[in-house]
Write a structure and sequence with these properties.
This protein is an alpha/beta fold. It has 17 helices and 16 strands.
Length: 434
């Protein structure tokens, strides 16, 4: 079955001719290879590009192991180049598998795949597309290594809308939602039939692809148990502030061995680099400054999160709904933080005191700013007042939104808060900007 990824395909097609290396990044198994070698290549052929002008290679395949050498990869593409004046397309999957190599002409200097891709950019009538699964190699270094000539397209697992597009019958959204927030949006998971088969696939993918990738890349074999336990802690704490010191103390008190807070921080950084998790920071809503409060972490895929907990925590739907909303906002291009606002209020005892309120998501994109609260259910007026209170404390004109699973449609209340049903929010992105 073909899963349409129209958002990413449009980003690829619109980037043709921009003079840059197009770099598709994202977590393992999210569909990067399928996007380039199926959807994008089909688009090129339907647009009249000849097969011999589409030169691609998947570096993670055993038969292509020799081309993980920088010089061999150079020879592969140069031997297949066309010189007829028509545009040719170089497509390289998992470019981060090509290690640096010593420059034979300059002792102590290393050549990298960035050098090779920059060389390809100088070829006439050549478009270059690559994929990578490690954000340290392909995000933080793009600006410097490509000297302003790298164009990143970050890909995510299937959104809820994309997930629904794989289903013949979408009449029971509640049942489909239950499947999605438990088993996530990796394409292979979605297309696998049966809960047991999904669990087996996710367990193997988490252990072999995600966890093993981190351990091998950063040479953490002696700390394999520690890394696995740390991922489990994060997977069980979605939507909660994470303190490195508190985690270190938990390891000491409950697991019987010591780990320094700085080591916890470093390992979490490795997980971010592997696109396993993403971090959102807390910012004050007065002055809009990021503060030193503990960050929150969300999983790029809910199925991998479920596997990391050994398929426990199925009663934590409110937290995983929050994770889904976060992923949706990031996929739509928003920069997402957590908001905090402190006010001086009179308590039950009549005394004035400072109280701190939290807004789940403060989202910014192109001058637009949106405040969002996530609430699985709002059974009564007291809960409604509790959820709306932080939004109403923000005294600006930007949109305030309350998302709940059991709302239907979208409507403004008397205070201007937009109340949106979860399924409407996930399937109708224009609701936020109306």
């Amino acid at each position: 079955m073909e899963i349409k990824r129209d958002t990413y395909l449009e980003k690829l097609t619109s980037s043709i001719g921009n003079g840059m290396v197009k770099i598709v990044t994202g977590p393992r198994r999210c569909g990067k290879s399928y996007l380039l070698f199926n959807l994008f290549e089909d688009y090129l052929r339907s647009s009249g590009v000849d097969d011999d002008h589409i030169i691609g290679i998947k570096l993670d395949k055993k038969e292509n192991a020799r081309y993980r050498d920088l010089d061999e990869l150079d020879n592969y593409f140069n031997s297949r180049r066309t010189h007829d004046g028509k545009t040719q397309f170089f497509i390289i999957d998992e470019i981060q598998l090509v290690p640096a190599k010593e420059n034979p002409w300059v002792k102590g200097q290393m050549l990298t795949f960035y050098d090779l891709l920059n060389q390809f950019l100088d070829y006439q009538n050549t478009e270059i597309f690559v994929t990578g699964s490690n954000s340290h190699l392909l995000s933080s270094d793009i600006a410097t290594e490509f000297r302003g000539r790298g164009w990143q397209i970050h890909m995510h697992p299937l959104s809820f809308s994309e997930f629904l597009s794989t289903k013949q019958d979408c009449s029971n959204l509640i049942a489909l939602w239950d499947e999605y927030w438990r088993y996530g949006g990796l394409p292979r998971t979605v297309l696998t039939e049966g809960e047991n088969a999904k669990v087996d696939y996710l367990r193997d993918t988490f252990r072999v692809t995600y966890l093993r990738d981190i351990i091998d890349r950063y040479k953490l074999r002696n700390d394999e148990g520690t890394v696995g336990a740390l991922v489990k802690v994060l997977a069980s704490s979605v939507g909660s502030p994470i303190s490195f010191t508190k985690i270190a103390n938990t390891f000491r008190s409950e697991m019987g061995y010591s780990i320094a807070p700085r080591t916890v921080e470093k390992y979490i950084g490795y997980m971010k680099d592997a696109f396993l998790i993403e971090e959102t920071q807390a910012e004050t809503l007065k002055g809009r400054k990021v503060i030193g409060a503990p960050s929150k972490y969300y999983f790029d895929d809910l199925g991998i999160r479920f596997a990391a907990t050994e398929f426990k925590g199925g009663d934590q739907e409110p937290h995983y709904m929050e994770n889904v909303i976060y992923n949706e906002l990031v996929a739509r291009g928003y920069i997402v933080n957590t908001g905090r606002i402190t006010v001086n209020e009179r308590g039950i005892d009549g005394k004035q005191d400072f109280r701190q309120y939290e807004i789940d998501f403060v989202c910014e994109k192109g001058g637009e700013r949106i405040y969002i609260q996530s609430a699985l259910a709002i059974p009564g007026e007291e809960k409604m007042a509790q959820e709306r209170r932080p939004l109403l404390l923000v005294r600006d004109s930007f949109r305030k939104v309350l998302v709940s699973k059991y709302f239907s449609g979208a409507m403004f209340d008397n205070d201007g808060v937009l109340q949106v049903g979860l399924f409407d929010f996930l399937t109708k992105p224009d609701l936020l900007s109306r």
